[in-house]
């Protein structure tokens, strides 16, 4: 099956710094990727749709200046959490679509101190 | 807005019992419904995908049914094993834009 990889799997940073998370489709090209956020014991919430070669589409309530998304190639999308604060601590998961099905990365745990 | 609910939130059963996990959704105009497994601190593994025109899908010990008119799906896991312990998520896709609405999941513990 299709493989989606995320890096890093865990990151700890100080408040006020920026953190970049990468999402790669390893064995297929993905023109569209998706970024989700998951709080403990809660469902995944879609943050934004990442489109290769164009601007990301953000869901209502998601700050586009806080969560910068770049989809520079057909296999890579990046999410940058700018000026991170403790409330940004969460589990971030990306997904990519292939032949009508979505495949998910392993997730990235962000802890902001 | 599509609301997806999963009941129960947690379930503990002895090994060998059959598992029944429920998922309900408020808008019956769906494209498909997907069941995922999530292990602690990990991403999602797709288990079964049911298209809106289908009534059920089966894979090994797993069987998922879909009743669009009543807004329900059920995941059955036969003869549960300790390795089945995980959180099971139900997700509904509304159209061909790939956006999914997730339930909060059912956390399953299978006791040896």
Q: Could you describe the 3D structure shown?
A:
The complex is a heterodimer of chains A (113) and B (112). Chain A has no helices and 11 strands. With 113 residues, chain A is mainly β. Chain A starts with a strand and ends with a strand. In chain A, the strands form 2 sheets. In chain A, strands 2, 4, 5, 6, 9, 10 and 11 form a 7-stranded mixed β-sheet that branches. Chain A has a 4-stranded antiparallel β-sheet with strand order 1-3-8-7, with no helix packed on it. By secondary structure, chain B is an all-beta fold. Chain B is 0% helix and 57% strand. Chain B has no helices and 11 strands. In chain B, strands 2, 4, 5, 9, 10 and 11 form a 6-stranded mixed β-sheet that branches. Chain B has a 5-stranded antiparallel β-sheet with strand order 1-3-8-7-6, with no helix packed on it. Chain B is globular and about 40 Å long. The termini of chain B are far apart. At the A-B interface, strand 5, strand 9 and strand 10 of A face strand 5 of B.
Brief summary:
Chain A contains no helices and eleven strands.
The rounded Rg of chain A comes to 13 Å
Q: What shape does the CA trace of chain A take? A: globular
Roughly how many Å apart are the termini of chain A? 37 Å
Low-confidence stretches of chain A: none
Count of individual beta strands of chain A: 11
Alpha carbon gap, first and last residue of chain B: 41 Å
* Helical amount of chain B: under 10%
